[in-house]
Amino acid sequence: MASEPSTQSRVVFQTPDKEEEPPHRKLGKLTVKYNRKDLQRRLDIEEWIDGQLHLLYDCEEEEIPELEIDIDELLELPDAERRSKLQELLQECGKPKEDFINGLLYRMKGLRKMSGSLKK
């Protein structure tokens, strides 16, 4: 089994060239257009809405009627129409809704509308 070094076969592994990352990562589209504070505030409002709907309907998430409260849609409406829109959305709820509506309208003050291309 003695063979000359020049005739032996060799296996060579090549490593792919590493792609160099840019020196600093680009921020996501949302964090560029809206600061994190605005995004966190919106998330907090959405979580508050979810919790309040559980209390209003006194049931688990799966049992809540199909109900979508679109914050951006409400922000497009004049102040006077927001309350009536919320009352219309919650008409099937048997419990008093005024505290929820007042709380939501208060939390929405100063909130900015997100552009349509960034919404889900």
UniProtKB/TrEMBL annotation:
GO biological process: innate immune response
The keyword Plastid appears for this protein: no
Protein name: Protein phosphatase 1 regulatory subunit 14B
Organism lineage: Eukaryota, Metazoa, Chordata, Craniata, Vertebrata
Biased composition (Polar residues): 1-12
Any one GO CC term of the record: cytoplasm
GO molecular function terms noted in the UniProt entry: protein serine/threonine phosphatase inhibitor activity
UniProt xrefs under Pfam families: PP1_inhibitor
Family: Belongs to the PP1 inhibitor family.
Cited InterPro entries: CPI-17, CPI-17_sf
Residues forming coiled coils: none
UniProt xrefs under Gene3D superfamilies: CPI-17
Organism: Megalops atlanticus
Region (Disordered): 1-28
Keywords linked to the UniProt accession: Acetylation, Phosphoprotein, Protein phosphatase inhibitor
Keyword hit for Transport: no
